[in-house]
Structure formats: C-alpha cells, structure tokens
Amino acid sequence: MPHVKIQHFPQVLSQTAKNALAEEITRAITQALQCDAGVVSIAIEPVSADDWQAQVYRPEIENKKDCLIKVPNY
Known about the structure:
single chain, alpha+beta, Macrophage Migration Inhibitory Factor, two-stranded parallel sheet, globular
C-alpha cells in the first residue's frame, strides 16, 4: 500500500526522468498518506492513442468518476 499506476500516450522517458517522476510521486504520497516510502509502488504504462478509450478512459475515468481526485478536461 499504496500503489500508483500512470498510464500515458507512448513517449520516450529516460531512466533519469522516470526516477525523478517516481521520487516526486513518492514524496507526495508519503506526505499525504503519512506512510513510509518503502511501502509505495509505482507503475508506468504506455497506452496507444488507439487503445486509450477502451483501456483507460472508459474503465478508469468514466466508470470510476467517484474515485477521481482530478478530472480531465477532454
């Protein structure tokens, strides 16, 4: 606990950029949830634009609106 999953359109991210992203997310999560950084897991998953509606938008955004803490404006 907790687990964060980032789904995004494919783009090249260096390992340095991934590490920096993980550090920032971990910092925010540990501060907000008052937990140790060692219990945080983070995944990053590229999803093609063609698959976005079926794999991300409908199941994760449209069908889970009550779980969203930030809503997209598209």
